[in-house]
Amino acid sequence: MPQGIINVVLTSPIDERNLQKIKAVSSRIHVDQVSPLVVADRKGDFSNKEKLDLLIQQAEVIYGWIHHFPRNLMDRASRLKWIQTMTAGVDQLPEEILKSRVKITNASGIHGTSMGEVVLEMMLMFVKDAPACFRMKQNREWKRYKPKLLRGQTAGILGLGAVGREIARLCKAFDMKVIGSRRSGGPQRPFPEVDRVYPREQLPELLAASDFIVLALPLTKETRGMMGERELRSMKPGAYLINVARGAIVDEGTLLRALEEKWIAGAGLDVFAREPLPPESKFYALPNVIFSPHISGDMPDYELRATDVFCENLGRYLADKPFLHEVDKENEY
């Protein structure tokens, strides 16, 4: 059990309510907000470098967004024991952190509702052909058509963690058939919302059986580029790919070909390999692409929910209990 004062360093700005919530976990918690110092440091303003170096060097715990972490963190944080990220994915963490002795926890579990709603939004936009309605409104046209239904269609979900299971639950509410795949394998029906779980080696069968393929898995060495030509050609010509995970899970050059040549019917993309998506990207112009700017995991009270996870883990840290959502560094999630 850690003894004495616990120095917690916040590398991202948070509001006063969340700051007080962290301090209320224990009188042993000392909090330093270094976000302005980190921003200055990253911009080349080293006027407060000594102060920042001292606070980072004294830090036992760091909490913040990964992209707000100071440069060369492991060289500067000799007393660091634990990092709590405000994100679920840790693919942006520097390799030296993943290889260090420092424990890493993330904010898994808070994104299911928001990401599930974006997935269903994209599914509904496709089956109801919402883009056609937007075009008609712009052109002041009135052309009736027969929309499709989600009921009876098959959703294939790759990744059955908290987000994948929530997507499955929502799909079931629309009377869809739900199949899925997860890295760890397991029983054929581990969740009531999933009709069948395919092992990873049967991915082509899952792809061929699905009307919607939903990517809800972390980006790791194993999943990077896993949706390539073989996988996209395994999908039905009338199927849609929806990605709310990470852009690099898909070979984007091959996906562009698949969309242009109609190997698949369309794609709903919230994430891209390069973000922000550059203006010259072909994805903007494709009529069979529905796009959102990596907002599927966000929500009005995100900071509050992420801080609740941190405070729960802070209490566990003080009591020497197992963390919630500790990252398996070997598996990268």
Explain this structure.
The chain has 333 residues and is an alpha/beta fold. It has two domains: 6-109 and 300-318, Rossmann fold, CATH 3.40.50; 112-291, NAD(P)-binding Rossmann-like Domain (Rossmann fold, 3-Layer(aba) Sandwich). It has helices at 16-23, 35-42, 49-58, 73-76, 95-98, 112-127, 130-139, 162-173, 203-209, 229-234, 252-260, 302-318, and strands at residues 6-10, 29-33, 61-64, 82-85, 103-105, 154-158, 177-181, 196-198, 212-215, 240-243, 266-269, 289-291. The strands form two sheets. The chain has a seven-stranded parallel sheet with strand order 8-7-6-9-10-11-12, sandwiched between helices. It has a five-stranded parallel sheet with strand order 2-1-3-4-5, with helices on both faces. Helix 6 crosses helix 8 (162-173). The longest helix has 17 residues, at 302-318. The radius of gyration is 22 Å and the shape is elongated. The relative contact order is 0.13.
